[in-house]
Write a structure and sequence with these properties.
By secondary structure, the chain is an alpha/beta fold. It contains 13 helices and 16 strands. 45% of the residues are buried. The structure holds flavin-adenine dinucleotide.
Length: 435
Amino acid sequence: MRSIRVIGAGLAGCEAANTLSKAGYAVDLYEQKPVKFSPAHKSDLFAELVCSNSFKASRLESAAGMMKEEMRMLGSLCLEVADQCKVPAGGALAVDRNRFSEGVTERIKSDPNIRIVQEEFTDLSDDEPTIIATGPLTEGVLAEKLKELTGTDSLYFFDAAAPIVTADSLDYSKLFCQSRYDRGGDDYWNAPFDKAGYEAFWNELVNAECAELHSFEKDQPVYEGCMPIEKLAKRGLDAARYGPMKPVGLHNPMTGHRPWAAVQLRKEDAEGTMFNLVGFQTNLKFGEQKRVFSMIPGLENAEFVRYGVMHRNSFLNAPKVLDGFLRIKGTKQIYVAGQLSGVEGYMESAAGGILAARFLSERLSGREPVALPKETMLGSMMNYLATENKDFQPMGANMGILPQISGKMDKTERYSYYARRGLEVMRKYLDEENK
Ligand SMILES: Cc1cc2nc3c(=O)[nH]c(=O)nc-3n(C[C@H](O)[C@H](O)[C@H](O)COP(=O)(O)OP(=O)(O)OC[C@H]3O[C@@H](n4cnc5c(N)ncnc54)[C@H](O)[C@@H]3O)c2cc1C
């Protein structure tokens, strides 16, 4: 039986090992715990949930729900176990974290095709098929070797990201389209503040509640250009107005003069379905981001597909480094799965494990893998990882990355349509694959 190495028994690694075992491969699953723990991992068990116990929304008509349904179609181990140990959480799928990790560990350990190797893995030779799923806190020798393999500027250790909102949730009657000093065409939309609006916004911003940093994140140096917007604002009433909210070079056609301050919105994808709040990297709690940033003119009903974060997070510049099927470019058989590959979130990481295993086993059987259709959430996520992006940031499931439809559907109808469309093409894709 052909043997494959999977490194890391987190969410991605366990899914990868399970998928490969079911496909008839022998798996050597390397896990450094309990010999070595990252600063966030505490338990000896596999598939440890390092923070929340929620796998987000269950509803099919939500991005997270749609993705989970696709994962079920691909035989997700994590979801099978999650369904057995769920706890009440309204519309979300949340689990008893211990029972969840125990359940996954038990399934992996009792699988005769999977051999557990309890050690820190540091080798990156291309002589055996390998899936690296060592997660967002990958460090040490392995991180150094990954850097050597992918180029020093392709592995990031800290994520300082601004929030992203969907284009169709913005109120364009309050925005104007202009690049600063008209350099760069129509690349930016601007949300203009008057003096009173800016001061009210500043007041909420400096008093908003921040997320608690882990002890291992507190000493992280923050470069001046990456300063959280709330920290910058605390330097004084005008600090943000001389920083990312500067109005210079802008002319508001609605008033005929320069705004007092402005937030610039930059396209996040080529289609312009999502916008990034330029310079708004932040450490505010997610609920606070929604509350305070919804005070920005035009963003009153903004839908946040990703909140801003400032946290330790090792991830690869996927579009530059991976080949579209999670294999490191220039290698024969080294794949990357989970958060390290540039996805964001528990279930997204788990899904990456399933997909890396499928792509690798396709190639081992002599076939080139077929890309998942972009209408599926997983296909869109893979497409996001493969699409050139000069400011690549990890991304979780969201409706904004799917191919959009125009027409007069309201948001609920549209999301329901996307979910049904996705599942239908996923079914067809799997039927073709299984022929
Ligand atoms: C502090 C923190 C909090 C987070 N909170 C959330 C949250 O609430 N909700 C959410 O959706 N996402 C959250 N995430 C993001 C992400 O979804 C999780 O980190 C998720 O666990 C990633 O899954 P993974 O399989 O890629 O990595 P992990 O689950 O981290 O698994 C990696 C595994 O590899 C092992 N390993 C690492 N290096 C080696 C090595 N060299 N040799 C052998 N084994 C190794 C580790 O011990 C670990 O078991 C959080 C991330 C962090 C860092």
